[in-house]
């Protein structure tokens, strides 16, 4: 079945550590996105990528990094510079300007 | 500034009652409009979308929405709510045209359904 797979579902990070969230899609979509979700704030765009080897910052990119070496993969690294990383992270993909399809999310908690 | 407003943070309806969730947007160009639904701890599922044409659009699970350009609104409706509709609902706006679908989301409306 086609879809978007995020892993892991739950992730715990110690202070000062970098962690990487995985996002893989087999929908053959060109564009991929990372959103952060906090209670009462909706979804905010972290990074997006239109094509392989190219990506742009979204509204809240500070403390995050991404790569897009393959069309189907768009991993997100939460660096130690992100001061408040505890959140629910959602990956999405789309064909150009059409509707975005979302993964099931990764819940990151700082311990 | 581009924005989406969902004025109702939390709504409770009785099972079988009708439902309307409000969405207003501010967008400088012709928008694409979407409604997504999210169950606890899950990703977002697309309910319906408006790109152009007929301003009343039908979606999955019996939902519909009406685009009113003069009011900058895209309200979601369902004539009879089922207990399984309890979830959080997000309205989103995206650019008409362009190579990506950078969505701007509202803050969501949490729907509770009473038996």
**Backbone shape of chain B:** globular
Largest interface: A-B, 30 and 28 residues
The count of strands of chain A amounts to: 11
- Gyration radius over CA of chain A: 13 Å
Segments of chain B where pLDDT lies below 50 for 5+ residues?
none
Class from secondary-structure proportions of chain B: mainly beta
Counting DSSP E segments of at least 2 residues, the number of strands of chain B comes to: 12
Distance between the termini of chain B: 41 Å
Helix share, percent of chain B = under 10%
What's the end-to-end separation of chain A, in Å? Answer: 35 Å
Structural class of the secondary elements of chain A? mainly beta
Q: What does the average pLDDT of chain A come to?
A: 92
The proportion of residues in beta strands of chain A is: over 45%
Helix and strand element order of chain B: EEEEEEEEEEEE
Give a description of the structure:
The complex is a heterodimer of chains A (111) and B (115). Chain A is an all-beta fold and 111 residues long. Chain A is 0% helix and 47% strand. Chain A contains no helices and 11 strands. Chain A has strands at residues 4-7, 10-13, 19-25, 31-37, 43-49, 56-57, 64-66, 76-78, 87-94, 101-102, 106-110. In chain A, β4 and β5 form a beta hairpin. The model of chain A has no long low-confidence stretch (mean pLDDT 92). Chain B is 0% helix and 52% strand. Chain B has strands at residues 3-5, 10-14, 19-21, 24-26, 31-38, 44-50, 56-58, 64-68, 73-78, 87-95, 104-105, 109-114. In chain B, strands 2, 5, 6, 10, 11 and 12 form a 6-stranded mixed beta sheet that branches. A 4-stranded antiparallel beta sheet of chain B has the order 3-9-8-7, with no helix packed on it. A two-stranded antiparallel ribbon of chain B has the order 1-4. The interface between A and B is medium-sized, with 30 and 28 residues.
